[in-house]
Amino acid sequence: MAIYLDNAATTKPSEAAIAAMVHCMREVYGNPSSLHRMGLDAQLLMDDARKTIATALGCESGCILFTSGATESSNLALRGAAAAYGKRRPHIVTSAVEHASVHSTMDALEAQGFRITRVLPDANGEFDARAFIDAVTEDTCLVSMMLTENETGRILPVQRAFRTIKKRFPDVITHCDAVQAFMKLPVKVNDLNADLVSISAHKIHGPKGVGALYQRKGVRLLPLVTGGKQEKALRPGTEAMPLIAGFGAAVQEMQSTIAPRYAHAVRMRDYLLEKLAQNPEISINSSPEGTPYIINLSIQGIRSEIMLHFLESKGICVSSGSACSKGAKSHVLSAYGISDDRTDSALRISFSEQTTEEELDALTAAIAQGQCQLIHK
Ligand code: PLP
Which of ligand 1's atoms lies nearest the C-alpha of 324? Predict the structure, then answer.
């Protein structure tokens, strides 16, 4: 049995999600656009999932668009809003630590002629809402900030920044990548003052390949692809019904347990940090103010991949930085001013409600063993 400590990369699908997917594939396989009874059954099942997700985000069902995941949600949000609003206001504000799905999309928009301001953290490695607010000008069309950053787990001041930006510049569209926060913190679109919010199912014990975009009523987007009228013609193509059913079931199961799961993650985080504090060659790259679900650490003198594979040989799965960067140097750790040496040896440990103290004991013992064996090689 693997000790799975890579929950920020993806999570194990819940039994409820699996059951909902199987039920959908076996029994409700009509096309939701079909006009007969089986089409209607599929439509009703999709409506249920949409309603569950909308309730979790504190919005109306009509504001939820299903996509293939948060990468697509953010592409639709950013490219879609830039195309709809950016002609006369070609400036965009974002943070320097966004996930590749936003970071690379900003690069692409820059190549199209948009001016992008990437806000850096302060000298303490924390973000100040004021830095985002001050970056907005009369020609800004869009501000995009993630809520929980996925490599070190820092929480960005989205609520405070968006509130003031919306007050001063009501025409600016606000987008939030809430992937690592959804179902871990209460994420309510009105509290966030967000016009667009990206979420993903596979980070919350749902299936891979499905996500959603919250689109506030009245906010215009241009679609990335053209086709039928599904998802208000903003995301045409027959909906991924089994995945949508699994997504709805995962949210349904998780939304009543945000607080106890959070408390468990705090216990696990504190337990692990206490044990790691006894190891003088380990430094912590996460902030004490960040999410309790993610700890990023560096082990002096041992490259991330070397330790990752050593831990894997002991049946322990962790990540080197972020899974999406696949070994590329992390732009996130660099933005925090973390040295190249520390970045090269960074590992990300991420918890779920299933994580136990025994698993963390096994992790720290394996790290210590790895230090003895690997450092003198
Ligand atoms: N945003 C963040 C913060 C993430 O951690 C991830 C996944 O790693 C994504 C976006 C991309 O999500 P998806 O895999 O659903 O495209």
Answer: 8
